[in-house]
UniProtKB/TrEMBL annotation:
<keyword id="KW-0812">Transmembrane</keyword>
<dbReference type="InterPro" id="IPR043128">
    <property type="entry name" value="Rev_trsase/Diguanyl_cyclase"/>
</dbReference>
<dbReference type="GO" id="GO:0052621">
    <property type="term" value="F:diguanylate cyclase activity"/>
</dbReference>
<dbReference type="InterPro" id="IPR000160">
    <property type="entry name" value="GGDEF_dom"/>
</dbReference>
<keyword id="KW-0472">Membrane</keyword>
<dbReference type="GO" id="GO:0005886">
    <property type="term" value="C:plasma membrane"/>
</dbReference>
<dbReference type="InterPro" id="IPR029787">
    <property type="entry name" value="Nucleotide_cyclase"/>
</dbReference>
<protein>
    <recommendedName>
        <fullName>diguanylate cyclase</fullName>
        <ecNumber>2.7.7.65</ecNumber>
    </recommendedName>
</protein>
<dbReference type="GO" id="GO:1902201">
    <property type="term" value="P:negative regulation of bacterial-type flagellum-dependent cell motility"/>
</dbReference>
<dbReference type="InterPro" id="IPR050469">
    <property type="entry name" value="Diguanylate_Cyclase"/>
</dbReference>
<dbReference type="GO" id="GO:0043709">
    <property type="term" value="P:cell adhesion involved in single-species biofilm formation"/>
</dbReference>
<keyword id="KW-1133">Transmembrane helix</keyword>
<feature type="domain" description="GGDEF">
    <location>
        <begin position="233"/>
        <end position="368"/>
    </location>
</feature>
<feature type="transmembrane region" description="Helical">
    <location>
        <begin position="12"/>
        <end position="30"/>
    </location>
</feature>
<dbReference type="Pfam" id="PF00990">
    <property type="entry name" value="GGDEF"/>
</dbReference>
Amino acid sequence: MRWHRVRRRYIGWLSLSLMSFTALMLLITYETRWVHPEIHAYFSQSGNLTGQQLATRSRRYLEESLGILLEEGDSEAVAQRARFQIELGYSLFDIGVYRNEYACTVPSLQRLDGLHDTLSRGIVPSPALLSQDLLAPIRCLTEIEMDQLDRRARVTNQFVEETRRHQTQVLMGSLAIYLLGLGFWGMHERRRRQADRATRESLRWMAQALRDPLTGIGNRTALHDDIDAQAGRSLGLILIDIDYFKPYNDALGHPDGDRLLRELVALIAKALGGEARLYRMGGDEFAVLLPCDSAGTLERSCALVVDQVRRAALSHPDHPAGPHVTLSVGGVQFIAACEAFTEAYAAADQALYWVKAQGRDGWQTGRVMPMDRVDSP
Ligand SMILES: Nc1nc2c(ncn2[C@@H]2O[C@H](COP(=O)(O)OP(=O)(O)OP(=O)(O)O)[C@@H](O)[C@H]2O)c(=O)[nH]1
């Protein structure tokens, strides 16, 4: 459980995946860096005479001496030259490895010792004796050569086998690390997609929570959020209420009432342009928030809303004062901040109800305290 927490906190799927790929890179680097020196070390006997090469050279000296003795006759000089060749062959033959591992070595060396003594005295032995004293060591050296070659072949085969096994292990190891890395990456991608989906879902819910489903514009919560987001800016708040909407509903029915609500939203948005934001406060009351740096801007905006609806001449079958839909509008300019908004809202509301009281179909701006202007219909 604790490990689970530590893993989730410090080791994400992405970092596990990166660690796997890094391990893979290190393994590959290690292999390319070290395998070749290892191979080199394995066969690095070049430069030294191997067991087989010593035997070959020794045999050649002995064969040379045999040739001298058999072909160049019986003389002191011939004996000395042959003795010299035998000394050379002897020195390469008389090594510990041969003595210990090949039974024919010691008797062969003894024969060579005897032959060397004879030749030192200037005597060339008979061919029969020579064939015993020299051919036996030559045969022994040939056996040694053959055996050394076999050994070398065995060592080479063993090395090849080991290399193949090692390569298989490295290949399987790399594959496992690679698959592990892919698995971690897949988990990371899955988690990321889940998180993205959850974020999108929350955003959708949040957007829905801030929207009026009938008209598609923001609701009261959205208005508060937008004011928070624009804290410190000079804004205009306009409240709009449909005049005699209840009689409209009663005369035409709620579906037509809904249609009128949507139509009015479109008209107001068109009148105020892209910078204004519309909100439905509930029932037949709307609010508008717009950048506003002067009382003149606010007044122009209020007038635009009222005029746009007047010009649209939407039919109202039960309006006591005329045949068309009209609006009552109240506006206020304020510096956005939570506390200021409560006062601004109250002032705009007061201005709106002043218009209602004056007979509707008009606009009025207010200040946080006194009202300063009336536009009578
Ligand atoms: N069609 C429709 N009507 C609604 C909706 N919400 C509220 N209403 C109606 O809007 C009407 C609001 O009427 P009131 O606020 O009483 O006043 P009014 O008739 O507009 O009169 P004044 O505001 O005084 O001019 C009510 O009849 C509500 O039933 C809605 O979503 N759709």
